[in-house]
Amino acid sequence: MVNHRYLGSSGLKVSEITYGNWLTHGSQVENDTATACVRAALDAGITTFDTADAYANTAAETVLGAALAGERRASLEILTKVYWPTGPKGPNDSGLSRKHIMESIDGSLTRLRTDYVDLYQAHRYDTETPLTETMQAFADVVRQGKALYIGVSEWTAEQLRAGHALSTELGFQLVSNQPQYSMLWRVIEPEVVPAARELGMSQIVWSPVAQGVLTGKYAPGQPVPAGTRATDAKGGASTIKRFLTDDVLTRVQGLRPIADELGLTLAQLAVAWVLQNDNVAAALIGASRPEQVAENVKASGVTIPRELLDRIDAVLGDAVEADAALTAAHAPTTRPS
Fold first, then answer.
1. Pfam family of this protein, just one (predicted)?
2. Residue 20 belongs to what H/E stretch?
């Protein structure tokens, strides 16, 4: 069964393997299959489910809400996000303005079939809305009982500190950040993680298997397999392409002896690796088949000895990206439309 960890310095526990439905529910897989994946997650002991209003333009929330219907609400942690465009994508259908936040939380609650979410997250930093306006809106969402905790996603260390200071002043606390993090993508380690530790915040990390590259299914010098993330024109292909070089793929194959030594698959090794970071509360996993969930949860509770962590670093070498500036560089500079 899946272990649980505290989220930041709060009293909330989340499953260290968290089920996320980006790029799957409402888009890549049929609803019946999506529901089967959610049932597999519940059967494996996963209690935490992460989504966002923008995933499949709100359809992912609807599918997740239906899949969780009938479950004891107090036994679940439901996470969603706000920022990216939704609906008809009008001038106020994105960002972190008070208008968009207050309207979006109500829409998310309706689609998720719940009176509250456990964690409501700023999906990116909004450069066009005063941070005070955003944080006041989040404070009101908490006071209204529509969200129990507030988090963010892909914020820089400086933004975390500014947001945390305002949240404390307004009587609530930012408890988490949701960044990309994997053996290959470590840009949060130099600045974001130290700031989060200082502020009592955890990471809920997405793409621990680097969009599937760390599963080993992409072979150097070979065409990408049909039906994989690399062929998904709806978003998967654009996010994975940075890793699809022969050098990276060769190095990933070099991790197999380490995974074998631990009795893990490459995917399980990748998920277990991010969980070795004590600032990581949860690793987000997605699935297009129920059996993928059952396999990924085997990474929970795994301890990777220091010697093997060092061997992983040696195998991956300069294929690892750890430039702290990339968090800001990949952030939107204007509100999306």
1. Aldo_ket_red
2. strand 17-20
